[in-house]
Amino acid sequence: MPRQASQEPQAAQPPAPKSVPSDPVQSESVDPPPTAAQQNTLSSSEQVARLLLEAAVVTPKQMQHANRVRNKLGEDYPLTRVLTELKYLDPAQLRSTLREQGAHIHLGDVMVELGYLRPRDLRAALEAQSEPDYQGKRLGEILLDMGLITEQRLIEVLADQLDFVVETPNFTQIDPELLKLVSPDWCRRLCAIPLRREADGVLVAFADPLDSSGRHGAEAAFGRVVPAIAISRAITEAINAFEASRTHAKQRKSPASESDVTRQVDSLIISALEKGASDMHIEPLRHVLRVRFRIDGVLMQVREIDRELAPAIASRLKVLAKADIAERRRHQDGGFRFDDPVSGRRCDIRASFYATVFGEKVVLRLLSRKAELLDINQSGIAPRMLERFIDHALELPSGVILVTGPTGSGKTTTLYGCVNQLNDMETSIATAEDPVEYVIDGIAQCNVNAKINLTFAETLRALMRQDPDVIVLGEIRDKFSAESAIQAALTGHKVLSTFHTEDSIGALLRLMNMEIETFLIASTVSAVLAQRLLRKVCDHCAERYQPTPHDLQRIGWTQSDLAGGEFLLGRGCRNCHFTGYAGRVGVFELLLPNDALRDAVLNRQSSAQMRRISVESAGLVSLMEDGLAKAAQGLTTIKEVLGKLPRVGRPRSYREILAMVGAVNG
Ligand SMILES: [Zn+2]
């Protein structure tokens, strides 16, 4: 009796073992009476036989024959094996039937029929199901519990034999909308968890995808279900993790107490100080409140806080900064002094509140109070350059000394280093700043505060009456402050200030563009120190690096210009957050005007002419040259130098630069 299956290529079928008698005479023999277990309930074989007959995969006559054969072999010999060996059934057909009719057959029966479980073990498990210990437990669980099968084997069987997809549920990937349709307890009870919507229905991972109550329950909840299999432990863990995250979210959603917010804010500031951050950005995004620190000039994300806490944190900071707590739609600013008795950390903080579409973004500027550590000798100015700066500018009785650079170039720090250098018992120093960024003992510092009408002009008038030797203006912002600085220098004061220009020559040009008389510029400006901060190569992961021909071409150097240099590059490690850089190093360009340059200013010569004169006769070393010398000493990289310093002309060789400025220590 040919069947469709038996017409398929025989090579795909396992050869029929000799043990299976195919003698048609045997088919005449009478079926034995059912066993005790079979009388109570259908045996695994009978369950499978019923399915196969219903699916018309096997004819009743074939089934009868197979049953007779099997009765001679014993009940441990699965009926389906007999059917396949008789070539009445092919394994692929068996698998697809079991999978499709899975809801109508028990896992245990499948395991028995597939030969992974002995019928008597299944009976033992079924009997145990009525014991108090196992009451209400699924058969799969009991089989595992009694050690009759391992979970891994169970999954292998179901995946390999029945083609169920094996899933590893991860609560972060679970569609929360699906979980809302059921409860964690539902998931636990059925040992199932919905994972995602697929084209054919909702993918649900079951510990036992053949468990009909689970399948029916899932279908009732989600409609069409695509069953998958997962280790029950993984399902339980995913449910627990989901529940924990929800409880956590709930707790976070409950109104945070004032002390929680205070603690949160304090811990952020302490952490920023510990990490040496210069600024902290607390910014509400669509879903979270993001906290970033600026460290070594680069922003770095450090924390994500529940979005719900944003208003409370902003309010806390407004209270500290003495800003209007009720105002949320306008930009505000303020400041406060942070003093943590526990960590001993303190600093002045400037707070800026900026109304964004997602709420107020707060930026805190941390003004380090460690002014006593500001030492011009430790600033990274090369030794010979520093010597000239002190001798020919700082120690002159009068004149304007300008520290220039863009925002974040470290010019304020250098300015304070100069002030520290000049601060002694015999010198009177007074400042007009906006704001006071470092507090230095022994000098009179004033915050210019336009809010209370304490303007720069008024401050300056009062300051002049204070009999100062040294006047420090935080920044020259306009013609008025420029004229004030020059006027003070003309009356015999030493004036220090910062100025926002690209390089040293740029400061002279900008003063000229402000329509300051050139003879005033020429006679008062005693020094311009232009500055940048470049990232420093991380000490922990630095490696020797040979500049490439491309590097050299971009610099304008030949191989011989490198001679004596030792270039380093950070490989990236934990210490440097895998950036290859840790800390920063200052790069400087010192302009000490000589007679030739003063003439050039008086004659309003071009920037290029003034630069040429400065290089040729006033000993000017450009920012680029100082940067290259620092790269050649392994302090920074060529990439930093080329990316952050202005390029003016071809730099001199490393040896020439070194001869002019000297090697930096550390
Ligand atoms: Zn490193």
What does this structure look like?
The chain has a seven-stranded mixed beta sheet with strand order 13-12-14-15-11-16-19, sandwiched between helices. Strands 7-6-5-10-9-8 form a six-stranded antiparallel beta sheet. The N terminus is likely disordered. The protein is 41% helix and 20% strand. It has 666 residues and is α/β, with parallel strands linked by helices. Bound molecules: zinc ion (ZN). Zinc ion binds next to loops.
What characteristics describe this protein?
disordered N terminus, binds zinc ion, alpha/beta, Beta-Lactamase, 20% strand, GMP Synthetase, Chain A, domain 3, 19 strands
Ranges with pLDDT <50 over ≥5 residues? 1-40
| Global structural class | alpha/beta
- Report the principal-axis shape: elongated
What is the CATH topology of the largest domain? Answer: Rossmann fold
- First-to-last CA distance: 94 Å
How confident is the prediction overall: mean pLDDT?
Answer: 83
Q: Write down the Rg.
A: 41 Å
Spell out the CATH superfamily of the largest domain: P-loop containing nucleotide triphosphate hydrolases
Strands of the widest sheet, in order across it, are: 13-12-14-15-11-16-19
| CATH class identity of the largest domain | Alpha Beta
Q: Count of DSSP E strands? A: 19
